[in-house]
């Protein structure tokens, strides 16, 4: 499920999933600018839009596609609303996927880069700290529109990653589903020489693992080769 203003997820996710995985999309009611209030208001359309995802058909997992929205609404509430329509289905959110990704990579000290305003960035950082991670450094681009976020280039993200990734960090978390992870994760990892976790990348990885599959998607970072934390496969 993507935001009404999302320019990235539907184009990005197919490149991050196994070739035989099909993606069906619904759009959540949302308007820019990105504020805590606008993000929380999105919760009102989650049940309605879940019902539009292949009605009467079978789904293996539901992806909720907003990192800052997850921080504002809460993982458990998002899952509860989806389960009202699709009881028992596997649900992943960007922050839930990020938590499991960092555990799989054994990353305990994390630098965070976001396109958001400082207020929204703080809410995401608080969630990362709640995972039990130490946030070593934080930077944001102070943007209020998903359209502006989607326009950030891989080179801009690389520059931001270089500035925020201090020597003590085990990994870099690049937050926001408006950023096309398939275009920048491999670049950042090759230049920064540490694992990079990005919202869409983590969502795709987590959804596939929740489906019980161990596919390793190439070209999108170290995470895509990893099992769920605790798996021996």
How is this structure best described in words?
- This protein is of the alpha/beta class and 233 residues long.
- The chain folds into two domains: 2-93 and 201-224, no CATH class; 95-197, Rossmann fold, CATH 3.40.50.
- Helices cover 43% and strands 13% of the residues.
- It has eleven helices and eight strands.
- It has helices at 9-16, 36-41, 46-50, 67-73, 75-85, 94-104, 118-130, 146-150, 154-164, 181-192, 199-210, and strands at 2-3, 27-28, 61-63, 90-92, 109-114, 134-140, 171-174, 196-198.
- Strands 6-5-7-8 form a four-stranded parallel sheet, with helices on both faces. It has a two-stranded parallel sheet with strand order 1-2. It has a two-stranded parallel sheet with strand order 3-4.
- Helix 1 packs across helix 11 and helix 6 (94-104) packs across helix 11 (199-210).
- The longest helix is centred in the middle third of the chain and has 13 residues, at 118-130.
- The protein is globular, with a radius of gyration of 16 Å.
- The two termini are 29 Å apart.
């Amino acid at each position: 499920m993507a935001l009404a203003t999302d320019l990235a997820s539907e184009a990005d996710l197919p490149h991050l999933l196994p070739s035989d995985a099909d993606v069906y999309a619904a759009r959540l009611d949302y308007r820019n600018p990105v504020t805590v209030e606008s993000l929380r208001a999105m919760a009102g359309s989650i049940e309605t839009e879940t019902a539009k995802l292949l009605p009467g058909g079978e789904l293996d997992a539901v992806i909720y596609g907003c990192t800052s929205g997850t921080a504002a609404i809460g993982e458990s509430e998002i899952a509860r609303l989806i389960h009202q329509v699709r009881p028992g289905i596997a649900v992943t959110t960007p922050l839930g996927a990020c938590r499991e990704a960092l555990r799989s990579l054994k990353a305990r000290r994390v630098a965070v880069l976001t396109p958001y305003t400082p207020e929204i960035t703080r809410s995401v950082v608080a969630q990362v700290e709640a995972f039990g991670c130490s946030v070593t450094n934080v930077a944001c681009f102070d943007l209020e529109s998903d359209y502006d976020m989607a326009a950030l280039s891989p080179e801009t993200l690389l520059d931001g990653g270089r500035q925020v990734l201090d020597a003590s960090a085990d990994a870099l978390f690049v937050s926001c589903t408006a950023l096309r992870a398939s275009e920048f994760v491999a670049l950042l990892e090759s230049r920064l020489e540490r694992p990079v976790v990005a919202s869409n990348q983590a969502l795709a990885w987590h959804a596939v693992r929740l489906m019980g599959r161990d596919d390793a998607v190439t070209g999108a970072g170290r995470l895509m080769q990893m099992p769920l934390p605790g798996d021996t496969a």
